[in-house]
Amino acid sequence: MTVRALTAALACLAAVWTAAPARAALPAAPPAPVVQTRDGALRGSAEDGYRTFQGIPYAAAPVGDLRWAPPRPASPWTGVRDATRPGSACPQQAGEVPGGSTDEDCLHLNVTAPAGTSPRTPKPVIVWLHGGGFTTGAGSSYDAHRLAVRGDAVVVTVNYRLGALGFLGHSGLPGSGTFGLADQQAALRWVRGNIRAFGGDDRNVTLAGESAGGFSVCAQLASPSAAGLFDRAIIQSGPCTGRPERPFAPSAAPLSTVRAAGARLAAEVGCAAASSALACLRHVSVSRLLAAQDTDQQPAYGTPLLPDDPGPALARGRLNRVPVLIGSNHDEGNGWAAGIIQAGNPVTPETWPDTVAAFFPDPARTAAIVRTYPVTGSDGGPVFGAVIGDSNFACPTLRTATLLAGHVPAWRYEFADEHAPPLTPGTPPFPLGAPHASELPYLFDLGGRPRTMTPAQHRLADLMIDYWSGFARTGDPNDVSPPAAAPPSWQPGAVQSLAPAHTGPAPTATRHHCAFWALP
């Protein structure tokens, strides 16, 4: 399940403004801010309490011979470049980005900074990597002004190549299987070299992401070429120990597997028998590549950028050693379970064994899951969701946190608002609780507008921003600034439950049957 970009409100807002009666003239807008980067000057937008700069190129457009090439530096420009609108999303089918995209000139980022930021007093930087199964999403879908203003931080949201254009595997192709990860590193290098112009501290950079973005953070922790590019890491619902046989969470794959997928793609678009398959593929239209690519993509390990699968790399202590904040949501699997049920696959005591067998084909494992997670009546949806969430997210996240804690400071959380605002329209077949991605509206306005929340949920959102920005500032989420209202203490080693009614330690390992999922 990915975050759905919401834009219908724009038309409603337009109708409200055109129908509104005449009113007194508004105060003059503040002057548009201009900053000087190493590539040239940028003119952004001044908002109430913050500034934004959008559509900033951090690398050259990956078109022509640069399709499936490591990112190259962006070309400098003369004059002042307009940075008041986001750039194109990277190519993807319609979904999270309305209408999708076929524009390969997409390696852009966006900067949101509190008003009054200055290079003389730089603020911590949070670089955000979006989720979407490595096939969908865009940095511009995440309005970061609340995180920037309340958190007193400079926030950077990033586009990176997706799908086959980001993760194609092909023999003899430098960067094979990791182009999207290389883009993320190029964005981090841009931040190190330019963010001080926006008032950010180039020596205090936190890399953060959710789902595929969270697993990307895992990959960068395990990547030798990412060493020194960031100082802290936040992993949301993207455990580093993801496995291909548990397909709801992101994972990496051996280079041989990714190359095999690339060969299938080449055959699908008529390039398998070409004298030069790569040259042929570089002339295939974006829309045709999107139609032929696999639904989900995986970065390749066994490569120069990612020598090892991130999970085993962490287990062996082969990681970039920075503090990490990591967590998942209480009901990660419920959204997928609801979608499968609504597609005509009811979960009842009679169908439950077959449903489990479809995802865990080993008969002994199926029987053990059915015994551990019994369906006794109308509770089939939540039980199915618990199996997906526990096996793919909750327990792998705890395992990842344990591996990390053996080498670096690791702060653990579980988002547990059982009435989190829904991310998609419609009525699900059962209450979803806190499913995958439901924590995101507490940090960002998704699709350019806030979600409707209760006062208690707004307080939780403020608290989460305090925790996240405190961690970005010093590596300790308890370091809230200003410390006028100290948040509930987050104890090292404990899992901090985040819910409107309770914030504090929670027994997540037993709640999610993690001893059971630790078995082969």
E-strand count: 18
Main sheet strand line-up: 3-4-6-9-7-10-11-14-15-17-18
- Determine the mean pLDDT: 91
Low-confidence stretches: 1-26
Please state the CA-atom Rg, rounded to the nearest Å.
23 Å
- Beta-strand portion reads 15-25%
Shape field: globular
Structural class: alpha/beta
Number of discrete helical segments:
16
What percent of residues adopt helix (DSSP H or I)?
25-40%
The main β sheet shows up as:
11 strands, mixed
Alpha carbon gap, first and last residue: 27 Å
Report on this model:
This protein is an alpha/beta fold and 520 residues long. It contains 16 helices and 18 strands. An eleven-stranded mixed β-sheet has the order 3-4-6-9-7-10-11-14-15-17-18, with helices on both faces. Strands 1-2-5 form a three-stranded mixed β-sheet, with no helix packed on it. Helix 2 crosses helix 14, helix 10 runs antiparallel to helix 13 and helix 11 packs across helix 12. The relative contact order is 0.11.
Helices and strands in order, then pairings?
Layout: H1 8-19, E1 34-36, E2 41-43, E3 45-47, E4 50-57, E5 80-82, E6 108-114, E7 123-129, E8 142-143, H2 145-151, E9 154-158, H3 163-167, H4 179-194, E10 200-210, H5 212-222, E11 232-236, E12 253-254, H6 255-268, H7 277-281, H8 286-292, E13 300-301, H9 310-315, E14 324-329, H10 334-342, H11 352-359, H12 363-372, H13 380-405, E15 410-415, E16 445-446, H14 455-474, E17 495-498, E18 503-505, H15 508-511, H16 514-517
Parallel strand pairs: 2-5, 7-9, 7-10, 10-11, 11-14, 12-13, 14-15, 15-17
Antiparallel strand pairs: 1-2, 3-4, 4-6, 6-9, 8-16, 17-18
